[in-house]
TrEMBL record:
<dbReference type="GO" id="GO:0015936">
    <property type="term" value="P:coenzyme A metabolic process"/>
</dbReference>
<dbReference type="InterPro" id="IPR009029">
    <property type="entry name" value="HMG_CoA_Rdtase_sub-bd_dom_sf"/>
</dbReference>
<dbReference type="GO" id="GO:0004420">
    <property type="term" value="F:hydroxymethylglutaryl-CoA reductase (NADPH) activity"/>
</dbReference>
<dbReference type="GO" id="GO:0140643">
    <property type="term" value="F:hydroxymethylglutaryl-CoA reductase (NADH) activity"/>
</dbReference>
<dbReference type="Pfam" id="PF00368">
    <property type="entry name" value="HMG-CoA_red"/>
</dbReference>
<comment type="pathway">
    <text>Metabolic intermediate metabolism; (R)-mevalonate degradation; (S)-3-hydroxy-3-methylglutaryl-CoA from (R)-mevalonate: step 1/1.</text>
</comment>
<dbReference type="InterPro" id="IPR002202">
    <property type="entry name" value="HMG_CoA_Rdtase"/>
</dbReference>
<dbReference type="InterPro" id="IPR004553">
    <property type="entry name" value="HMG_CoA_Rdtase_bac-typ"/>
</dbReference>
<keyword id="KW-0520">NAD</keyword>
<dbReference type="InterPro" id="IPR009023">
    <property type="entry name" value="HMG_CoA_Rdtase_NAD(P)-bd_sf"/>
</dbReference>
<protein>
    <recommendedName>
        <fullName>3-hydroxy-3-methylglutaryl coenzyme A reductase</fullName>
        <ecNumber>1.1.1.88</ecNumber>
    </recommendedName>
</protein>
<dbReference type="InterPro" id="IPR023076">
    <property type="entry name" value="HMG_CoA_Rdtase_CS"/>
</dbReference>
<dbReference type="InterPro" id="IPR023074">
    <property type="entry name" value="HMG_CoA_Rdtase_cat_sf"/>
</dbReference>
<comment type="similarity">
    <text>Belongs to the HMG-CoA reductase family.</text>
</comment>
<keyword id="KW-0560">Oxidoreductase</keyword>
């Protein structure tokens, strides 16, 4: 249903200044949102009680987190509206501003390298590591055939399935040898956790019988580095001072783990928000991304920005293991609406969007950090909360907000005490 009335460079001006009702109308008019979904969203996304009972154990209620949209994304020449579930100020605003800028002055593209998720089978102590490796390699095709014909048969029909088994050995602290098998599985459009675990547990007895070694556990790995999603951005003819400062900020995050952690937190602000909106397991992606960020022995940035011939180039590379079927993606009514807003049915396409969001979220933060600083934009938006929290009445809100913004611009700092004092003065003067 998407892409009505938009071409790759056309941007929406002033979307953020519309009311919520007008925003919903715009999304419906342009075909990004099904009119039937509006009612569901306006009622806070009412979810049936039966669903609550099936999702988790000992449920006692729902916890609401806001759902918003970032606009003006053009990824691989296709226009997207990005649904995001997040409780933090300025993430969606910063992302939308950055997406609009890149839409007008650059390009954003993605690629996927590899296609396999990893299932691990552990042999805590191998009796005969050489014989073990030989047996696995001799019987590999048989093991793969068996697992593909049974637990993975439905994946095979969708073009996925298991395609390789790799032997790894690690020397333990007691000098004995631990054996680990990596079963490489293409989970198609599912995140794959259940299927991969089932496949590994199915292989357990078969492999034990052929190798006479004891399997100690089976589980998927969240460091799915056999499938990397990359996003690339270029901003043409960027202000050279700004470009150079972003390059320096990026270098800081590449060589200093203290900065890398904060840089990657900013990236995950965007990534997690889309994963939650689409019903995906964001903890799995978080774990994989941070493990990947430390793959060279030191925790580093998962993004990189550099200036070349007057243009700023950015790249994000990360293992983004997610699904558009399975889990709660199709059960949770709001996750279904969010996938509809994205117009996405395939997991690979969602991974591309998620990677692009992560990269542009990083650009938004770096752009603010090396120019204005992060506080101004963040606090401008936070002032809305501050005026409500000190009990300002409707007619007092505009003046109190204006004075607080002025103070913020002068001092780079406002807090609840300031808001209370200013409100007291306003009341005394009227
Ligand atoms: P501004 O220039 O004052 O905003 O920026 P504006 O009012 O001129 O509007 C420009 C555009 O910004 C709008 O376009 C929107 O796209 C967006 P329009 O809709 O008018 O065509 N925008 C908004 N969108 C939705 N709701 C809003 C809104 N306001 C503007 N209320 C802004 C203001 C906050 C965007 C800017 O100061 C900014 O980008 N700041 C950076 C914010 C940011 O990156 N926050 C991320 C969270 S902090 C974080 O990531 C952790 C960190 O530690 C990571 C790290 O260290 O790397 C920093």
């Amino acid at each position: 249903m998407n892409n009505i009335g938009l071409n790759s460079k056309k941007v929406w001006e002033g979307f953020s200044k519309l009311t919520k009702k007008e925003k919903l109308e715009r999304l419906v008019e342009t075909g990004f949102l099904d009119p039937q979904c509006v009612v569901e969203l306006q009622h806070g996304g009412t979810i049936k009680e039966e669903l609550l009972e099936t999702l988790i154990e000992n449920p006692i209620g729902w916890f609401g987190i806001p759902l918003g949209v970032a606009v003006n994304f053009c990824i691989d020449k296709k226009h997207f509206i990005i649904p995001m579930v997040i409780e933090e100020h300025s993430v969606i605003a910063g992302l939308s501003k950055a997406a609009k800028f890149i839409n007008l002055h650059g390009d954003l593209s993605t690629e996927i390298l590899g296609k396999h998720a990893i299932g691990q089978i552990q042999f805590a102590c191998l009796r005969d590591p050489v014989r073990f490796e030989k047996k696995i390699n001799e019987q590999k095709e048989f093991f793969l055939h068996q697992v593909n014909q049974t637990v993975l048969s439905s994946l095979i029909k969708r073009g996925g399935g298991a395609s390789d088994i790799i032997v790894r050995t690690i020397e333990r602290p007691d000098k004995k040898i631990m054996g680990i098998l990596h079963v490489l599985i293409d989970p198609s459009d599912a995140m794959g956790a259940n299927r991969i675990n089932q496949a590994c547990e199915f292989l357990r007895e078969l492999i034990e019988a052929h190798t006479h070694e004891e399997v100690t556990m089976c589980i998927l790995s969240n460091l799915s580095d056999q499938k990397i999603t990359a996003a690339n951005a270029v901003i043409y003819d960027i202000d050279p001072i700004l470009g150079k400062r972003i390059e320096e900020a990026s270098l800081f995050a590449q060589i200093d783990p203290y900065r890398a952690a904060t840089n990657n937190k900013g990236v995950m602000n965007g990534i997690d928000a889309v994963l939650i909106a689409t019903g995906n397991d964001w903890r799995a992606v978080e774990a994989g991304v941070h493990a990947y960020a430390a793959r060279n022995g030191q925790y580093s940035s998962i993004t990189k920005w550099e200036m070349r011939e007057g243009n700023l180039y950015g790249r994000l590379e990360a293992p983004i293991q997610l699904g558009t079927v399975g889990g709660v993606t199709q059960i949770h009514p709001i996750a279904k609406i969010c996938l509809g807003i994205l117009g996405i049915t395939r997991a690979d396409e969602l991974a591309r969007v998620v990677a692009a969001v992560g990269l542009i979220q990083n650009f938004a933060a770096l752009n603010a950090l090396v120019s204005d600083g992060i506080v101004n934009g963040h606090m401008k938006l936070h002032i809305k909360n501050l005026v409500l929290s000190v009990g300002a009445q409707k007619e007092e809100i505009p003046l109190l907000s204006q004075i607080l913004i002025g103070k913020l611009e002068q001092t780079h700092c406002v807090n609840e005490t300031d808001a209370l004092e200013i409100l007291k003065e306003i009341r005394q003067n009227t």
